[in-house]
Specification:
The chain has 103 residues and is mainly α. Helix content is 63%, strand content 8%.
């Protein structure tokens, strides 16, 4: 995607590191690849390695969608774990009070 126009520049047929590397090496000259300032990627560590090989001067940033997704998943896990602990405590107290009343 073009950062200024938000238009699609190119679409590569798969996400393999070797495919991405070959595409950029074959399509763009070394001076063009050196001129790249910023590359936005998802959290796949392999992409970082490919970007460093293709455009050694580029700064890598993680796109905001994946940061928000990562935070949302972490909050969901914390919420679910807290709820499970709370429900277990409620269940234990409920069982305890039921047995207390029967005795």
């Amino acid at each position: 995607m073009d950062a200024d126009t938000h238009g699609l520049v190119e679409l590569i047929h798969d996400r393999l590191s070797s495919t991405i590397f070959e595409h950029f090496i074959n399509q763009y000259s070394f001076p063009e690849r050196q001129a790249v300032k910023i590359v936005s990627i998802d959290l796949n560590a392999n992409y970082q390695l490919v970007v460093h090989r293709i455009s050694p001067n580029a700064r890598i940033i993680v796109d905001i969608f994946h940061i928000v997704q990562l935070c949302s998943r972490a909050i969901d896990r914390a919420r679910i774990n807290s709820l499970k602990k709370f429900l277990i405590k409620c269940l234990v107290y409920t069982v305890y009070f039921i047995f207390q009343r029967k005795m």
